């Protein structure tokens, strides 16, 4: 009986936490101006710049990719292959040039290292738990975690090449 | 008066409990060494050692448990619709339940039997019978989905089914109820001599697992109760019990229990194959449905087939022999060497065991005691291998542990009895709670049992669990059989009524278990494998919604231009490619069920919009922190409106 009560209590507290978190995010239309500012203060961790705008070209992220060399020339054939993979596996959440469920990949290599991008694709779970920048991005994007779409390293590399064409 | 009854009942119940205590107390060596709890406790996050596949009986499903914990891992829908998984409700799986009687949403499942290679259970497929509207199903153990259902023609009461030969050459299905073949309008009292039975041989393709009704053997109109294909030395034969050799058509309880002996029918299926090759069959016109689920298109198709090749046991010598077996034998079980054929005569005081070697000798030397409908009856004494004397009351089924021991369930005296194959001496007995039917030992029906555990499946639980109104669950009881004496470890409630169960070491299945369906292999004609292809199309009164699902949105989530009187097809594709991220789909007022779409899979739900308004749909499987947001609206306009067909997400 006690255990049951505990379970119920735990369940409710989880629900409450979830609801609480959600309300902070669920801003726009009806929410009060004050609360809005409150959330924007909370979101960024250190610098005050939103995670999506931060430039961290030295951060390679957490995951299987430790080194990627990009040729000066874009490999068009590889980019075409990458676009194909992207449209099947990624498009539902990431539009090429506008913020959607997740950030837009357009211009991502001006802010991120190629390794970081590939690790985010290949190891999203590890990234949002261990990489501080990915953690902040999760916050900024409503707590919607990036899905692991099971891409191979070759597929992720092709997607990266496609990002260079955007 | 009623009160007295209750008191009497309570007294009996108490006496039973005390008797139970006494039994336990005598045999156990005390709390310190009896740590049964530790032996069935599987730590959180750890796996069970064995899979157990239990028939769901009148639930029509297959239940998958972990052993020794008794944790329910999955219920696989087979012969009954399952709204949880949309089996038999979505457009893709409806054809699975098609028969020549129409769409049949229920059946009574009895005997799950696993595929074998060289006489060893191999973890590829489970075959299982539908008793009522005769069917045999195949469950794929890489997906735990029903992959195929074959209706059996010329059959009624598909009980002695579906049993697998040593190399999965055939799945064998017999008939419990004799019927006129072909069916016709005739008086029931003319049963005797006119009603017939069938034994069907379903050939299995070793690559795909697909079944083909290869041939049937026509048999006299007895009730064929259970089947056990020969093992090892008796491979090539199949044994089946009979009752009602009296051919009674009414009050069977009395009239089918008149003969001192019924038969075990020994069928030489290698001989049957020869007769087929020689063309000694007749081709009969029949109708039966063959339903196959295609894993690439995520869709089932149902085909009606029209012919079956039939061999007549009464006219083809050497095909079938009858072994006299006392008193309405129920189970028939062949030991791992294939030498001994145990007849569990349910009304007999003793267990009768036939010898395969003696049987061959009796056939060779024509030691016949007569014939029935042209089929030779072998001399009882000449085939008898041994007798287990007075083991208990109401023997039903026997399994083997691979160490020369046999274990038999006794329905009336509620116990499992361990005895020695060859010496026929009784080694141990343990009570069950109560009235066991089948029992199962990992590999215990094959050439290579793994032993270790025994699962007794009980028909009656009465006082074993907290009461739940008049209907209480059946149960399974787990025994440790590693020692000289069996030890009861635990019992757990089951879904429906478990009949037979198949148990195998987990590693046979675990490593092959599929985690996702690959999007790039999805060949469903209505799949939307890229968000770029999301669309809504109207074809007359039919509206097709090509929708995708991924954490945490449905695309499109706003649909307008649907009208009252339309038939809306929601074709949902789950774009996830990660393990354990199914998404559900439900829409208000749907007459069928939800969908539960696995990663990479496509499923279709039909919806009839009946009321004007704006109606929600949503994901039913808590998929992410933003699961509650995974929803949308469909606007339903009057039938004569001009609302334009539009769809969108996030605009």
Task: Walk me through this protein's architecture.
The complex is a heterodimer of chains A (166) and B (651). Chain A is mostly helical and 166 residues long. Chain A is built from seven helices and no strands. Chain A has helices at residues 2-25, 33-42, 76-89, 114-122, 124-130, 132-140, 153-165. The radius of gyration of chain A is 19 Å and the shape is globular. Chain B is mainly beta and 651 residues long. Helices cover 9% and strands 43% of the residues of chain B. In chain B, strands 6, 7, 8, 9, 10, 11, 12, 13, 14, 18 and 19 form an eleven-stranded mixed beta sheet that branches. A six-stranded mixed beta sheet of chain B has the order 42-41-44-45-39-46, with no helix packed on it. Residues 10-32 of chain B have low confidence and may be disordered. Chains A and B meet through α1 and α3 of A and loops of B.
Provide the descriptors you would attach to this structure in a database record.
heterodimer, A: 166 residues, mainly alpha, 7 helices, 0% strand, globular, disordered N terminus, B: 651 residues, mainly beta
Layout: helices, strands, pairs:
The complex is a heterodimer of chains A (166) and B (651).
Chain A: H1 2-25, H2 33-42, H3 76-89, H4 114-122, H5 124-130, H6 132-140, H7 153-165
Chain B: H1 2-27, H2 36-40, E1 50-55, E2 61-67, E3 71-77, E4 98-99, E5 102-103, E6 113-117, E7 120-130, E8 135-140, E9 145-151, E10 163-164, E11 170-173, E12 179-180, E13 195-204, E14 211-220, E15 223-229, E16 237-243, H3 252-255, E17 261-268, H4 269-277, E18 282-294, E19 299-312, E20 320-326, E21 329-334, E22 340-345, E23 351-355, H5 356-364, E24 368-372, E25 375-378, H6 380-383, E26 384-388, E27 395-400, E28 405-410, E29 415-420, E30 426-431, E31 436-440, E32 453-458, E33 475-480, E34 487-493, E35 501-505, H7 507-510, E36 535-539, E37 542-550, E38 553-555, E39 558-563, E40 567-574, E41 583-587, E42 595-597, E43 602-607, E44 613-618, E45 631-637, E46 646-648
Parallel strand pairs in B: 14-19, 37-40, 39-45
Antiparallel strand pairs in B: 1-2, 1-35, 2-3, 4-5, 6-7, 7-8, 8-9, 9-18, 10-11, 11-13, 12-13, 13-14, 15-16, 16-17, 17-20, 18-19, 21-22, 22-23, 23-26, 24-25, 27-28, 28-29, 29-30, 31-32, 32-33, 33-34, 36-37, 37-38, 39-46, 40-43, 41-42, 41-44, 44-45
